[in-house]
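Worked example

This section walks through a single chain of length 321. The input is the sequence exactly as stored; nothing has been trimmed or padded.
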Amino acid sequence: MNGTERFAAGFLASMAILVAAVALLILEIIGFWVFITLFLISFAVILIPIVGGRTISAEFADGKLHVKAMFVDARIPLSRIDAVELRQTFDPGIRLFGYGGMTRGYGDFSNEEFGGYIFAGDTKVPSFIIVRYDGKKTLVFNLGDSETTYRMYSSLVSGTDAATSIPAASADAAEKHRRSHLSNKRLIYGLVAVTVVIAASIVAFAMMSGHADAYLEDDGIRIDASMYGETIAYDSITSVSLETGMDYGTRVMGYSSHEILSGDFRNDAFGDYKLAVHKGVAECIVVHKAGGGVTVFNLGSSQDTGELYDVLCMKLSINAP
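Given that input, the structure is written out below as C-alpha cells.
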C-alpha cells in the first residue's frame, strides 16, 4: 500500500470514527468528553499514515521521469520536458490538495509564480528541481539531501534537451498566475472557515444537548439523563433528603457540560454514586437505596425540585423537614 492509499484508508477510518462518535453522542450513549476524545482520535488516525509517508523518490523508467510521494505520482516523458532549473530556495505557497506541514509538502500547491503546480519537497533541503513540461505545467521536487537532489538534476540535464532555466513568465501570464493564486488562497481560507464553523457547531451541540429529568411513577422514581437512566423502586429506598450546595465530587464515567452533570460520580460523602443534576440549581434530592447505593438528582429549578421532593416524601410516607 503506497502513501496515498494509506492516507485514503486513514481518512476513511477517521471519518468512520467521527460519524460514529456523533451518532453515539446524539443517542446519548457517550458523554461530551468521550466524544472529544474520539474526535481527537479521528484526527490522529489521519496523521499516522502521514508520519510514515515522508519518502520522496525520483527515477527514470521507460523514457519518463517518475516522481513519487504521498499524493504525488508524476510520470513525465523526457521528450515533453521543456526546461529544468535548480534553485536553492523556493516558496511552495499554499496547499490545494494533499499534505502541507511545517517544512514538507506533497500534492497540488499554488504560488504567485506558477499558479497551480505539483510539489513534493522538504524546505529544509536547500535544493529544489523545477521541471517545466508540456509548455506550461510545473513540477517542483527535491530528494533527501542537496547532493542527491543535485545528482538527479544533473541526470535530467544530460538526459534531455531541456533548457537549464525556467523562462520568466510574461506580464500577462504572471498576472494570471497571481490572480489564480489569490483565488486559490480565498478558496482555502473559505474552506478552513467552513470547517471551523462546522467543528464549533458540533462542539456547541454537544455542550447544549444534555438533559437531566426525573419522574415519579406508580412503582418508583424514573431518572432520565444523559448517559444515565434508572428506575428506583419506592420499596428499595431507605432514606431521602433535600440538600443544598452539595459537593458532587469527580466524574468517573458520564456526561458533563456547562449545564448538566450525569452518570457515575465519586465524592467523599458517598464514595461512588449516581448523579443527574442541573448545575445551576443548588438544591438536589439524595436517595439512599437498600444495599448502600446512592442516587442524587434535581430538576431544572429549585421550585420544581422542592415540589418533587415533597411529593416523593408523601409517597414514602415521610414528613418533609
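What to look for: Helices lie at 3-26, 32-51, 146-159, 171-208, 302-315.
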